[in-house]
Design goal:
mainly alpha; 63% helix; 162 residues; 6 helices
Length: 162
């Protein structure tokens, strides 16, 4: 009798599972908020604001996913600025900044190919004009310039997401 009851219950659950699979939703990954509470401020320098506005424009002229992508990029660039300002062991030169930026985007699975024409170039121009085009070691001044550049990128992406 006990086995028969278990068999009936199992059969009912299987049938419900086949026909009403949307009844139970088990999330495999936690939902990440579209907009995060990140402290992103407008760049003080007018030149940086203009360069960051180019980033904003490319996001606004791109894919409909710009809200999600823009806030994810803003969060990434804000975190990069924090990493550069706090760490002088791993991020020692401009090459390490580039590598960290590429690695972080891959880890976050941010896929922007073809969605925002000109975005990579606008970001690259901002960083190169603010920091340097050369592969050099970071001193205190250059480190601060890199932090400022990534905070400007974060602002530009957050504005493009609005």
């Amino acid at each position: 009798m006990k086995n028969k009851t278990l068999l009936i219950i199992a059969s009912v659950l299987i049938v419900l599972g086949l026909y009403r699979s949307d009844m139970i939703s088990i999330p495999l990954l936690p939902n990440s908020p579209v907009c995060c509470d990140v402290d992103i401020t407008e760049p003080e320098s007018e030149e940086l604001k203009v360069l960051a506005s180019a980033v904003t424009a490319t996001l606004k002229n791109g894919s409909a996913d710009r809200v999600i992508d823009g806030y994810r990029l803003a969060s990434l660039y804000n975190d990069m600025a924090t990493l550069i300002s706090l760490d002088d062991n791993v991020i020692q030169n401009t090459t390490a900044i580039k590598e960290a930026n590429i690695l972080a985007a891959k880890l976050l699975k941010i896929d922007l190919k073809g969605k925002y024409p000109g975005l990579a170039e606008a970001c690259d121009i901002l960083v190169k004009k603010t920091v340097t085009t050369d592969a050099v070691n970071l001193d205190a001044e250059l480190r601060q310039k890199a932090v400022t550049a990534f905070k400007a990128l974060a602002w530009g992406c957050a504005e493009g997401a609005k």
